[in-house]
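Much of what follows relies on a compact textual record of a protein's fold. Think of the row as the fold of the chain written in a discrete alphabet. An example makes this concrete, so a full record is given next.


***
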Amino acid sequence: MNSFYASVEIALHPEWKGKPLAIAGKPEERHGIVVTSSYEARKMGVRTTMTIQEAMKRCPGLIVKHPDFVQYRAMSERLFQLLGQYTPLVEKASIDEGYLDMSDQLKNTRGPEVAQKIQLQIKHDLGLPCSIGIAPNKFLAKMASNMKKPLGITILRKRELKEILWPMPIGQMHGIGPKTEEQLKAMGVVTIGDLAASDSKKIAARFGIFGKRLFEHANGIDDRPVDPDAWNSYKSIGHSVTLTRDTISLSIISETFDRLSKKIAEKIRREHVVSYELTVMIRYQDWKTVTRHLSTVQPLYSQEEIKNNALKVFKKNWSGEAVRLLGITLSAFQTVGASTKQLDLFSYERDAVKEPLINLVDQLNEQFGDGALKPAAALFEEKRLGSSENERK
């Protein structure tokens, strides 16, 4: 989909059609950042991650709208229901992106004709623009879909890799982020063609399985099937622990939630998903068990966010009795692909700054043991909880 969030807002507010629009966090705070913008705004120089203040300087008539994820997810559901009319083999890759395997449907019809029909129906029924890539596999289809926006239809054949794909800068290859781009350039890999011509063993030695996949993709090889069940493969991810002794200690409870959150955060990072629903389980000393749910507008991803929300749910529902077991479960997942593409991880500016630090802390704690390095805020929280506990006693 093209500029999905902004396009949904324009579909819901026809009076904004043709006007510059930016979706941004906290419009009332002029230092909030732009998440995405309409093509009219982009022509005026408005860019993602730009502050609202800077965006309005470049585009004085800019309309600024706070994101409405409920509406975006509802529109996404309608989109994929529409796509399901063309083939049962539809794989949802993110809130606004998917793959369709049309092999069986195209025996008597040309691909571009079907693509145009899909594009026109999405525009007519939903009021949204999209770009479509046609190719023999998922990677090449993804690359093709990015080549012409908005409302583009692009065909990319394997025999065209040398002329079309290989001259492209390595940073434009799907799956390569800024960090990987920097590492590849340090190895002399500047274009996708350079990667395709590299020593595959050398790339695999440097990047592991991920490097092997990148090498194959650069050469147009991708045997991943379109999987309609992929989106729902993660129903829930959770951990629980029985405490060494029943407790009413808030510091012990907080520390337990911290450990559980760390395990879950590591798991969802490996699976490349974020969550929109958290469940806390509390089992008391008499074995009475209660579970309480929290749905969030902003995605849960980091250890800190998971812990803070779990602790909030616990404090709201705790009876004050001694606790025997605690558990946290995340569900309602979305791929990180949607987040990185349109900054659906809405605390983007904070997360982007903290990511290198989080990785460093993880590495040091793996080497020297858990707790070897922790944020000062965690120590203040432990001290505060300890003081509250003493007052309670």
The longest helix spans residues 250-271. The longest strand covers residues 323-335. Residues 338-356, 377-385, 387-393 have pLDDT under 50 and may be disordered. The radius of gyration is 24 Å.
